[in-house]
Structures are given as structure tokens and as C-alpha cells.
């Protein structure tokens, strides 16, 4: 199998890990940003998906036909990787996808196919094509060990760039592909006890609810889940999953997996250093997006800004990464700036308008923890 190091030379360059003076001052910590928004497809997904694509091309050859159902960052990552390697790629999207999304996929040489009215219909249409073609391969968006292995390469880079153990790594989570990569990457470099803190938005927080189910906070027999969320049991990994039938978060385009990868939920539950799950309202992500843009002159998707919410709320940060007893050293923190292409000035302005309309002291400023506690910000 092609090694990750060789893949980096072929498909991506090492992304920067930069020191953030504004966030370090705000949190009284040494804060570093891993700029995964600088990949060819603008997000971390390029790592794992290009790794999967490379391995598939080595097994099947140049005739491989890459097929994916995604009108988001996974679809663009597959299209970019296919273009670099000179491979055929078809991206199935549901009817009603934005024309800008279709245009950027076509610019990368993808064959864009409307696969039905809803995402699941697009998935079914993509699977039907794979079954009908000998050399067609379904590219997973987040649920595959090769995807996690590829994403894990960012931890190898951070380990080299940082030169010391961090006190915590923050990331966003949807289906769990990025988190799975961080877990695998930390295992590889000996960071298994480094706390991982995964954030998502209320209304698309399938990982938060899945972890809560398996930690016993919910009685699975009573199915105490939000309206529109069903209970699923995965036999292979013996975990309960929260299956969303719809989303109310504006970040659902990136974070809105119907259910998380069962394998990642199992890894998170068994990880020595644990995984802390936090669910925040859209308004806090919008606030972080605006503040991050002002501080660092970088525009990121709402899903990416969700990762950064604790960076702009010291009270939340202190709950998540408390100072170790007797320690006088500054904490060292890494935030994964996961990126995303579905953001522009018009969208950012709309978020700012919605943010200004949200009254302070409302549920728009309340954060949920995986232990059931809430914090009003």
C-alpha cells in the first residue's frame, strides 16, 4: 500500500500550524491553529479521501471510476483528487443543490449527476451505478479506516511542528471522519491521553447524542431523544447511534450526517484520553466565525467556526481544559481549522444579521455538554 508520506508528496503539502496571538491572549494559553482550509479542496477532507482514492487507483488501475454522493466538501475532495490523478469521478447530488456547488465540481472535472430529491436518493443512485460498472468504486465521505488513516496524517504533522504534547486538541464533528483521524493519529504519535474535544451544532449533533446514549445518560429502552431523532443499534461495534431524519442547524451541510460512524463512536468510547463532546447553538458558531475572520483574516464555513467557539468564550474553555493542579505552565492548545468551501461574503453577512437578531440570555447562548450539563454564555 502507498504510504501516507508518499501521498503527501503526491497530493497535498504539509499545512501550517500557526501561533495565534489574539486567541492566546484571550485564553491565557499558547494557542495554535492547524490550517486545514489550505488544501486544494479547501478542507481537511482532502487528506482522507485522496488517500482512499489513491489506494483504489492502485488496486484497480487507471480505469477506476470514482463515485461519491455528496454536494459538500467530501464531493469536492474526491473531484480534486481524481483530477490530480487523471481519474474519472462522478458526484451524485440531490435536486436543489446550489448552482455554485455544481459549477465548482464541474471545474474540477467531475461528472455531476442529480440523483433524486433528497440526499439518500442520491446515495441510492450512486450505489446503483457502482453495482452496474465493473471498475466503479464508492468513495465514502467519512466511514472507512482508509479515510481515518489519511486524516490522521495531520496529527503526524502537528507532532513534528509543535515539538511538545498539547493539553487538548479541538475539532468539529459530524459523521466522525475527522475525529476518527485524530484518534488514529494520536495513537500513532503516542498522544492517546491527550484530550480531544469535539464540537457540533444543536440540530445536527448526532455524535453528541450517540456518545450520550452509550455513556448511559439516556435510557435506550425509553428512546429519550429529540423529535426527529431515532435510535439505531450497530451490531458490529455494539454501540447505539442517534439517527437524524432531518436537521435544524445551518451547519448541517457539513455537520449534518444522519448518524455517525459506528467505528468512531466505539473508538471514542474506548480512548484512554477520552473524547469530550460539546453541542452549541448556531448563533455561537456565527459569532466565532465573525470574530475569527476579524482576528485572522480567514473566512471559514460555519461548521469550522463551531470548533472555535471555546476560543472566544474563556468560561467555556476553562470548563473544558481546566488548569492542572499545581501547574504554573501555560496550557498548549491546538484548534483544527477544518475549512470548507461553502462560505462567501454574502453568507457571512447573513450570519451576522441573524446573530444581531438573537437576544442575549436566550437558548441561542446555551451550550450542552456530554455529561448533561448546560452553560449559559
From TrEMBL:
Keyword set, alphabetical order? Lyase, Pyridoxal phosphate
Please write the reaction equations for the catalytic activity of this protein: L-serine = pyruvate + NH4(+)
User: Could you tell me which SUPFAM superfamilies the record lists for this protein?
Assistant: Tryptophan synthase beta subunit-like PLP-dependent enzymes
Needs which cofactor?
pyridoxal 5'-phosphate
Gene Ontology terms describing biological process? isoleucine biosynthetic process; L-serine catabolic process; L-threonine catabolic process
What sequence ranges are listed for the domain Tryptophan synthase beta chain-like PALP?
Answer: 13-339
Source superkingdom:
Eukaryota
Q: What class of enzyme is it?
A: lyase
Can you name one GO molecular function term for this protein?
L-serine ammonia-lyase activity
Q: What is this protein called?
A: L-serine ammonia-lyase
The organism is Panaeolus cyanescens
Amino acid at each position: 500500500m502507498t504510504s501516507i508520506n508518499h501521498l503527501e508528496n503526491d497530493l497535498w503539502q504539509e499545512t501550517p500550524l500557526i501561533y495565534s496571538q489574539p486567541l492566546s491572549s484571550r485564553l491565557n494559553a499558547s494557542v495554535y491553529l492547524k490550517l486545514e482550509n489550505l488544501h486544494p479542496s479547501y478542507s481537511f477532507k482532502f487528506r482522507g479521501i485522496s488517500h482512499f482514492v489513491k489506494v483504489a487507483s492502485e488496486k484497480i488501475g487507471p480505469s477506476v471510476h470514482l463515485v461519491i454522493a455528496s454536494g459538500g466538501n467530501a464531493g469536492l475532495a474526491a473531484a480534486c483528487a481524481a483530477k490530480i490523478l487523471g481519474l474519472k469521478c462522478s458526484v451524485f447530488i440531490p435536486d436543489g443543490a446550489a448552482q455554485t456547488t455544481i459549477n465548482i465540481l464541474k471545474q474540477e472535472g467531475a461528472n455531476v449527476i442529480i440523483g433524486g430529491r433528497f440526499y439518500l436518493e442520491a446515495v441510492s443512485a450512486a450505489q446503483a451505478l457502482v453495482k452496474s460498472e465493473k471498475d466503479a468504486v464508492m468513495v465514502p465521505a467519512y466511514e472507512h479506516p482508509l479515510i481515518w488513516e489519511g486524516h490522521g496524517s495531520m496529527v503526524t504533522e502537528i507532532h513534528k511542528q509543535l515539538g511538545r504534547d498539547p493539553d487538548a486538541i479541538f475539532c468539529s464533528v459530524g459523521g466522525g471522519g475527522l475525529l476518527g483521524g485524530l484518534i488514529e493519529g494520536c495513537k500513532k504519535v503516542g498522544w492517546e491521553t491527550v484530550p480531544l474535544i469535539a464540537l457540533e451544532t444543536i440540530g445536527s449533533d448526532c455524535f453528541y447524542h450517540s456518545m450520550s446514549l452509550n455513556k448511559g445518560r439516556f435510557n435506550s429502552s425509553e428512546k429519550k431523544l429529540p423529535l426527529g431523532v431515532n435510535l439505531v443499534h450497530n451490531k458490529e461495534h455494539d454501540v447505539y447511534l442517534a439517527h437524524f431524519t432531518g436537521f435544524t442547524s445551518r451547519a448541517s451541510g457539513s455537520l449534518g450526517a444522519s448518524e455517525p460512524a459506528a467505528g468512531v463512536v466505539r473508538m471514542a468510547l474506548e480512548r484512554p484520553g477520552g473524547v469530550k463532546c460539546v453541542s452549541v447553538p448556531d448563533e455561537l458558531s456565527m459569532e466565532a466565525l465573525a470574530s475569527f475572520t476579524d482576528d485572522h483574516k480567514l473566512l471559514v464555513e460555519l461548521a469550522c467556526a463551531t470548533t472555535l467557539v471555546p476560543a472566544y468564550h474563556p468560561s467555556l474553555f476553562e470548563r473544558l481544559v481546566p488548569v492542572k493542579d499545581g501547574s504554573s505552565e501555560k496550557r498548549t492548545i491546538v484548534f483544527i481549522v477544518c475549512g470548507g468551501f461553502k462560505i462567501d461574503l454574502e453568507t457571512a453577512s447573513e450570519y451576522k444579521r441573524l446573530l444581531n437578531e438573537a437576544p442575549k440570555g436566550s437558548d441561542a447562548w446555551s451550550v450542552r455538554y456530554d455529561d448533561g450539563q448546560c452553560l449559559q454564555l
